[in-house]
Amino acid sequence: MLVFGLAGVLMAGVIAVALVLGAFAARNLDDRLAADQARIAASLTRLSATMESLAITVQNGGTTLQTSSEAMAEAQAVLDTASASMGALAGALNISILGSQPFAGASQNLEELARTLDSFKGRTATLGANLYQNSVDAGVMAGQVRDLKTQLNELTVRVTGFDQIGELVALLIGGIVLAALLLAWVAVGAAFCAWVGWKLRRIGAGDGTSAAG
After folding, report:
1. Domain range list for the chain
2. Is CATH 1.10.287 the classification given to domain 2-203?
3. Digits of tens for pLDDT over the chain (213 positions)?
4. Other C-beta atoms within 10 Å of 50: how many?
5. Spatial CA neighbour of 132 closest among 71, 66, 76
6. End-to-end distance of the chain based on CA atoms, in angstroms?
7. I need a surface site. Which of 73, 88, 190, 193 has the fewest CB within 10 A?
């Protein structure tokens, strides 16, 4: 019983030290948590503004890409007209005068230019299609960024509206107090057991001495 009581007192002392350290750590805990809450809310607000700026930038980029795609379509139409005109002019210059073709070289050059314009027109059409697809992707990305910003704003409202920090800290302190009371009760019991064990041991030692005498 003496050993049991001493072990109980020792364990109660260790737990008491832990409770004291916890009580010191809980000092001004509500103020610190409130300050952290304010900092988190401010950071989320700044992040929301940054995401809105990003969405606007992406959207403007998509508008520019769409405008470029339309310009490519207009350029394709112009090149198509120019290629047809070059072909017609090359045919008109491919004439024979008194058995000779004085404009044969110019006609061949115009035909080559018309073929070059046709090739460039095809590349222009491909570039216009790519620009249009990129503008569509940019619009989708801007929408996704705004959706994330909406979710972030909801999280900011929840963080800002959480007003139960004081209650949580009060519950924590109350738990520490209750644990301290329970620990005191256990320590008293352990001390009593140690005292009884010590008394019984002295009585046993006295009886042994009397028997030996």
Report:
1. 2-203
2. yes
3. 555 555 666 666 666 667 666 666 666 666 777 777 788 888 888 888 888 898 888 888 888 888 888 888 888 888 788 777 777 776 776 666 666 666 667 677 777 877 777 777 778 888 888 888 888 888 888 888 889 888 888 888 887 776 666 666 666 776 766 676 676 766 666 676 666 666 666 665 555 555 545
4. 11
5. 66
6. 28
7. 88
Q: What whole-number distance in Å separates Cα of residue 57 and Cα of residue 141?
A: 11
Cα torsion through 10, 14, 16, 21, rounded to 10? 160
Cα–Cα distances in Å, from 52 out to 58, 127, 144, 156?
Answer: 10, 30, 11, 15
Secondary structure of the chain in HEC code, one letter for each residue: CHHHHHHHHHHHHHHHHHHHHHHHHCCCHHHHHHHHHHHHHHHHHHHHHHHHHHHHHHHHHHHHHHHHHHHHHHHHHHHHHHHHHHHHHHHHHCCCECCECCCHHHHHHHHHHHHHHHHHHHHHHHHHHHHHHHHHHHHHHHHHHHHHHHHHHHHHHHHHHCCCHHHHHHHHHHHHHHHHHHHHHHHHHHHHHHHHHHHHHHHHHHHHHHHHC
